[in-house]
Amino acid sequence: MKTSDNFSFGKYAWEQFKKKKTAYLSFYIIVSLFIVALLSPFLANHQPLFVKYKGISYFPAFSTLVNSAKIDTIQLAQGKFDVVNFNDIDWRSKNKDFVIWAPIPYSPNFTDKYNRDYTSPTDNQRYKNHEGKIDNIPFRLRHFMGTDKLGRDVAAGIVHGAKISLLVGIFSMLLAALIGIPLGAFAGYYGNSEVKVSRFQYWMTAFGLFIGLFVAFVSRSQIISSSFQESILSGTWSFLVSLFIIMVAYFLFSFLGKKLAIGSFLKKEVDVPIDAFVSRTIEILNSLPSLILIITIAAIINERSLVVLVLIIGLTSWTGIARFMRAEMLKIKELEYIQTAKVLGFSDRRIIFGHALPNGLAPVFTSVAFGIASAILTESGLSFLGIGVPDDIITWGNLLSLGREEFEASWLVIFPGLAIFVTVTAYNLIGEGLRDALDPKLKK
Amino acid sequence: MLKYIVRRFLIFIPTLVAISLLAFVISINSPADPVEQLARSATSEGNTNSESSATEKIKNEIRERLGLDLPVFYFSVKTWADCDTLNNITSKAQRESLTGLTRQYGNWEIIQKYRITLQHFISDINSYPKDSTSAEIINDLRFTSLSMQETSDPVIIDSKMMALKTLTDSLEQQNLSHSLTTLNKSFDAVKSNSSTWLNYLPRIQLNGFNNQYHIWILGDLFTGKTRNRKGVLRGDFGNSYADNQPVINKIKQTFLYSFVLVVISIIMAYAISIPLGIYAAYKADSIFDNVSSVIIFMLFSLPSFFAGTWLLYYFANPDHFMWFPTGGVNDPAVFDENWSLWKKLMHQSPYFVLPVITYTYSSFAFTSRIMKVSILDVLGQDYIRTARAKGLSEYTVLTKHALKNAMLPMITMFANIFPAAVGGSVILETIFSIPGMGSEIYNAVVGTDIPMIVAVFTITGFLTVIGYLFSDILYAFIDPRIKYEN
């Protein structure tokens, strides 16, 4: 083992991770999925990337991205005008001087009226050529993964679905980590008897939380609900304001309780059972089957949107992360360097976030990787049932459910299914690789 | 030991209460108005547009039957501005708009006056003699003023006032214009006499046993009234909004299918994964071990709805292999309830082959991973080294010494697998159209049948917690290494 000055555990773990070929390969699969997701508007678009039409150059894929209702008027030679409406124009049937198509020349929601009713990848596919005749489609414009009932391209759906599944996977786990890591860390570090406050402060803090919750969600209920009706963004903002009010009330009352405690009865120190609170919450959440919980909440909220889906998955799946973090923290807090830090008089916050947390994150990373895999599975399962994302968003799950309606269309089952399978496998393999790389005990 | 079991029971009860509270909170926060939902099915299609007293009466009956006229919980946290008798108002939308106004202006008495003037105005419109020329205007007036009852946004109310004014002006009717002016004044009074600060003062009100949660969980017990409700704890989950049948009867009908599928698949998964895990550990790092772990890993990542759809596509499709039926649990054309058990079994078993395969592989992938990890963990321990050093054969070491301890995590798994199976079955039962709990909850979600959703939610939660309880207690008996005393 190298013992140079710039040795870091991160570098070492990366070296270990690279040794595991399957995990390393999966890492590249996920990176390329990210690239596909980022570039999806240019990888699958029925507007050409570049087209020279009647002597004028356009970049339809780019300009429709900026302005969806772009209309251009061309002046022709004899004082005639031609209107180019990017929304209506079927570039395939135009006589173009020069064109560069996107790799998949269809958008996920673009309905190809000449290839409706489940055109298979190997079928004779049709299009309208520049003379206005229906002809066999040129190789470049083929639907390589076939179409669905409405004539939407499956390949384009796969490319854009990558974006959705990555968004759901990453953001829901980000939320889960943001909740799970601090809760698990506090529960593990403080336990049930580490934190002692005066009895008065304990009561005052509880009262402060009550007041905070009251003002945040009872007094302000009308403000929150009306701003959610206005837009998701302003709703989220007033929700955050409410959370801020709770925090202010908490700190204010706990400060007051600390300063105002008088008399031996009020000053008597009591334990704050932080671990018990967190562990009981985890136990309750874990005792509800997650899919049933998610479906129930989705049914109650009755609003199908990506944001809601991410919130539901994130808010129900932080328990795994919190449990790992708690177990790790229980081990770490007994280590000598933490004891040293305590003796040196470092504040708890500094010890937890500066010294203990970074060492305990390894199992959390593993848990996050597995969590992303299961979040993607959950999202595609919900979309498959038709209770996940809105209908106009194409995801792998709802492509697959389209295949269930028509058994002949095997391409509607196989391609989205493989996409989900590959992504989930890749994340699981990364999780395994991370576990092996980050856990020095498993090393030979 | 006894102390541990008692303590474990004591933790078990608050968890049940928490689950029931969660389920209840979900049920009362649903956006759907159950009264409207039930009234729509109770009244005929023809007279739904008229706000007749008959519909109103039906709605009130439904509210009373569901206990919606009662406060929500044993105590309620209110603001000083809130009104106590809000639950008496039938329409949920009107209740919400009144709460909205109260939260904005904090002067309940004046808002109440505004509400009463608005009701007077509506009855004035309703009593207005209809003739052919004014019928359309009257309809507009009624529509606008009725919708005014359901909004709390002052801007919208003001704009509706303006609309009402132009409409009444066009009628040139002294009486209506006058009552509109009163209405306008009363709303201005609401706006000018606001006492918003009252909203920031909390008030706790005790409601006694006559509250919605109590009736939901315990029914008529202690309430002193008879509503014919037994409560969740005595197996009454209310009636379904979809067809007004008792939810528990529907669940009884469907539970058997889900349960049979889950049990068969768990037994099969254990029967395959335990020998497989032992053999893989016995031949550690052999080709068999590597290949089997790769296959298990891939099965683990394979979405069950993909596998299920794919199986149907190949084995229940006339173009490939029409080996199994495409879905359902029997052929309604020939199936007879009075058949002997054997005949039923022979008839129905082909319907279960594909679902059981799909169920089994997903739980099998899970169990065999756990099995392998735990057996490797046990094999690394000192007592195994001792057993080997004694010269015992590897076979004896594995089956006699390692297996017992390696099985311990599988006990926990047994508790874990139940919720996984019920949850996962939502998708699988929908694919294979099996009339089980999963498809029941799916249909309930699609039709916003809240009692059904909440019932499935509560039952699965309770069963899971009971499963955990049993596995913990079982653990305490089996594993002597675990110390339970503090």
Helix-strand string of chain B: HHHEHHHHHEHHHHHHHHHH
Average predicted confidence as pLDDT of chain A: 83
Uncertain runs of chain A are none
The largest sheet of chain A has its strands arranged as 2-1-5
CATH superfamily of the largest domain in chain B: MetI-like
Distance between the termini of chain A: 13 Å
Tell me about this structure.
The complex is a heterodimer of chains A (444) and B (486). Chain A has 444 residues and is mainly α. Helices cover 62% and strands 7% of the residues of chain A. Chain A has helices at 9-19, 21-38, 40-43, 60-66, 154-190, 199-219, 221-230, 232-260, 263-267, 274-286, 290-301, 306-316, 318-332, 336-343, 348-385, 396-405, 411-438; strands spanning 50-53, 56-58, 71-75, 81-85, 98-100, 126-128, 134-136, 196-198, 269-271. In chain A, the strands form 4 sheets. Chain A has a 3-stranded antiparallel sheet. Chain A has a two-stranded antiparallel sheet with strand order 3-4. In chain A, a hairpin with a 5-residue loop joins strand 6 and strand 7. In chain A, helix 5 (154-190) runs parallel beside helix 13 and helix 7 (221-230) runs antiparallel to helix 8. Chain B has 3 domains: 75-206, no CATH class; 209-237, no CATH class; 247-478, Orthogonal Bundle (MetI-like fold), CATH 1.10.3720. The termini of chain B are close together. Chain B has a two-stranded antiparallel sheet with strand order 1-2. Chain B contains 18 helices and 2 strands. The interface between A and B is large, with 55 and 62 residues.
